[in-house]
Amino acid sequence: MLKQYLNVNVIEAGCDEAGRGCLAGPVFAAAVILPPDFNDPLINDSKQLNHKQRMQLRKVIEHYALDWAVASVSNQEIDKINILNAAIHAMHIAIGKLSKLKPEHLLIDGNRFKPYPGIPHTCIIKGDSKFLSIAAASILAKTYRDEFMVNISKEYPLYSWDINKGYPTKKHRVSIAKHGTTPYHRLSFRLL
Predict the structure, then answer these.
(1) 147, exposed or middle or buried, with CB in 10 Å at 0-12, 13-18, 19+?
(2) Three-state DSSP class for 39?
(3) pLDDT tens string 63-82
(4) Do 88 and 113 form a contact (C-beta atoms < 8 A)?
């Protein structure tokens, strides 16, 4: 069972990102504030769920969350500031987009984060498999990123982004070797 919160009677936002290890496309992040009594036994780290489960849970999260937001940082920006900074920046943008409630504490998946102005945070390694709000954020970040990659795969079908979502599969690397890079590739990454 995932925990509902870290601190009692505090408005907490769970934050997570998707797409850090990809060779192409933006990094996405989400921030989610769930009701303190919210529970859904199916919610888990998005990597443990299949596409259909993630899409069903996305509807549940968007319906029941007290507030939620998704943001992305482009591959060009990733190349400029590096992937860790870009992932943190995407989380900051998502937190800033929360419009109904201001979080009093942030639960961050992972071990690295730059403080968000005026809101304390706790980094939690494997937080998406420990806290509901972080797992919910991981589901939103992943589903919105996957949708983006499926859409741009229509523009560049040779790279199979509709299947690999930009991750470094053998087929993706072979396509880069054969056809070169696209405007969506992260040129600071080892592409071959």
Answers:
(1) middle
(2) coil
(3) 999 999 999 999 999 999 99
(4) yes
Separation of CA 89 from chain center: 12
**Integer Cα distance of 50 and 119 in angstroms:** 33
Q: Could you give the strand order of the β-sheet that contains 105-109, starting from the edge strand earlier in sequence?
A: 67-73, 27-33, 12-18, 105-109, 121-124
Range of the domain at 102: 12-179
Q: Domain for residue 188, yes or no?
A: no
Predicted TM-score (pTM) of the model is 0.97
- For 128, the token pair is 């998406």
Q: What is the domain-level CATH number for residue 172?
A: 3.30.420.10
Cα of 123 vs its chain's centroid, Å? 15
Residue 183 DSSP class: T
Answer whether residue 5 is part of any domain.
no
